[in-house]
Amino acid sequence: MLKLSQSCLLLLSVLLVGCGTQGTRSGGGFSSVSPEDAPFDYKGDDYAKRLGAYEAQFKRPHQWLTGENGQYYFAFFDAAGQPTGLTSTQLSQASRVVKSQLIAKPYAVATFFIPSGDHQLIKRLLKQQKGLLTPAYKLTDELEIIPDIDRTTRLFHEYRNNYGLRLASLKNTLKYHVRFVASVESQCPTRESQGITSCVMQSWMMSNSLSNVFNTDNPYNVTLLNRLLNQEWPKLGYILLNDQPVVESPAVVNMKFANSSKSMKQTIPAKRAQEIKPYWNRSRWDIVIVKNSDQSRRELAEKMTEESAYCEVKLLPLEALDQYNPATAPNIHVREKAKEFTDNIAQQFCGKVIQQLAR
User: Signal peptide location in the record (predicted)?
Assistant: First the structure.
């Protein structure tokens, strides 16, 4: 059973409400759209339609639903981290919260998604194949991104011992992280390449024409990860990729090997907060399928999570603030508290769905 500490809950409620009262639009706040006009799997930019989709999801929790792009499984949680009741009265109350009091109530929505055609494959992988858990991440006092060893260890034992997954050891999790950070360095992001050693070396060694090969929107070098995959884990079936929003974002240049290691990029914490803030907004991990490119090689796609199954938990007030008025949305420290809350829900919700699939 989930418990959010009184201090954390108070901080969440007070600061989210304080920020949110400035974030609603004048003249009536949030408009509403009926679920019939916004199917439960709506993914567009119209936030009023998304609210209608949430109401539709409220009505059909804890069951697999088939949408346009795949299958979905939903649950909602209240400020204490408990699943919301779904009697007709409670549903009516929950719908009013979603439509008119979204800013003031820290409701969370949990979603498990499996792309069309992958349901049986995911079940077979979880039952029969070995997986690799990548690190969960946290922020240092200087707002650098480092592995959260405690949380990663808890997740590892939870999924292996309680939910029956066959996972490569935590030593391999660390090995993956080291290679991942090296792969970020090797991309030499044009935004902030100054001070990243390998970028300096690349500009010295490569001609201008050859250096264009390295220009990419991807913040990491998947070739290095695939090399590690084939060297160390030739029988790996999938990767449980933690904290996808930040891992596949430009903010990943603020990552480093460990708390004691040198920063990949030198900058002030305020600048890091600005870069990380848009992506420190929910708890999500993906089931990344390792593909057989031929009989001898195994590969990850260039963007690992483009077509992956995923499980995510979002705090609805935070999402609303980011959508309606980013200037008054919570700062990075409030987001850390919010993410602790959604991380705890995700560990429970995602684990139970995984357990269903792996039976």
Answer: 1-19
